[in-house]
Amino acid sequence: MHYADLVIEGNVYTMDEDKPFAKSVAIKGDKIIFVGDNANDMIGKDTILINAEGKSVLPGFIDTHVHFVGTAISRFDDLDAFGLSSISEILEAIKRIKKPEGQWIRVRGFDDSMVVEQRYPTRWELDSVAPKNPVIVKRLDGHSCVMNSLALDRVGIKPEMRGVDIDEQGRITGILRAEANEIARRTSEYEASKEEILEKLVDVSYGALRSGITTIHALEGSTGDESEVKLLMDAKLPLDFVIYFQTTDIREAIALDLPRIGGCILVDGSMDSHTAAMFEPYNDKKDSRGVLYFKDDELKDFVLNAHKSGLQIAMHAIGDAAIEQLLDAYEYALSEYPREDHRHRIEHAEVPTEDQVRRMAKLGVGVAVQPPFLYYWDMEKFYIKRLGPERAMRLHPYKRMLEAGVRLAGGSDSPVTPMNPIVGIHAAVNHPVRGNSIELYDAVRLYTRDAAFFSFEERRKGSITEGKVADLVILSDDIFKMRSAELNKVKVERVVKNGKLLEINKKLSYGHI
Question: Which of 47, 62, 151, 321 has its CA 20 to 30 A from that of 427?
Fold first, then answer.
């Protein structure tokens, strides 16, 4: 008799339709060897037995949209403004930062919709609290920032650059979007050593594990810069990674032997910064419909060539105009070179039309959605303000997408929102547009079985099934027997990764994990 290394007894929600519920799961090595009502025969003197009565046992969570290296690098910032409620509070916090003259002060996590002033700080306000240091305040979504005068001079921002905000007197306000934002962020980034980044990657990895995440879809790098991708490929971390190289140079992805390309290659920007491309103008900025970063032919050529090369493609499209442009490109590629199981993705797709939802299903295009956006951004103060009440009803239409046959998978967009699938599950179930909410079982699928499908890994992981990899999470409560409004209170208690019960609360350094 071969005894199990680990047996867990509790409410096992397998996400396997052939055996949806069990009371016991047994693990040997890195594999699940038994799922059923009683594993007593597999318990030997050396078997670890975990009693999870009254709790939930689920497959390990998969976050399908993370800027993992970017999340690690963001930990070098001097201040996290997320949660600060006013510009004056942010300015006071910046004033308290003591750095030598001329050194960068970096602030992340700012959101104009979360401060009482409902606006960005100006360059002059930043000058008043840090006149001798270049300051960058980065918006939470990554698509805009604001700099003080010293920072603008150091980066070389000019009024004619795309995305530079100009006031009525013709002055640069310090607010930067689109290309100017990209230049500002890249130029101001902390120049960390490889060793420093590896230490932060360990911290971020254990933060993910504490949220029950065992697999990350990491969207890394940019055209001509594969350093982030190689760093993550070579790093020895306690998570599984599905890496998307954010390059438009197909040869670069193929040279690294990656079967996929893209991630956050931007078709448009974000609603937060009024740069998501919309068919109709923004409700609170009537002169703007956002920005398309590709010409139609450019996008079609890239998608066609990547598709023809056998790669899985993922691209960022938030607004309905951007979704339309990307669907046109996918449709063109699939008509020229039909491929049944391509599993191409759209990242975000926040406000699709009914017709676009039908097209996604027909083309077999999946959507990597971010339910935490609904949790952190207020429906009235943000979404209705940006979109107007009628268009906001189309926001994150998970129910309609699933009913139409569109594959969905959940993610955080970290560092935009924290890696926390529990929050994502809560948000999908408690959607502010009630007609767009989904059942708890479907919400859990977003982060387990369906997420595994997005990376062609559904035969290895994503459900608690005999023969699959033993990645599991034990939650503090039985989530299927509690009020949906309280799902966000659930805690992750234990994590099993590749059959090993992990010490997720230990502080470890790189090389000792």
Answer: 321
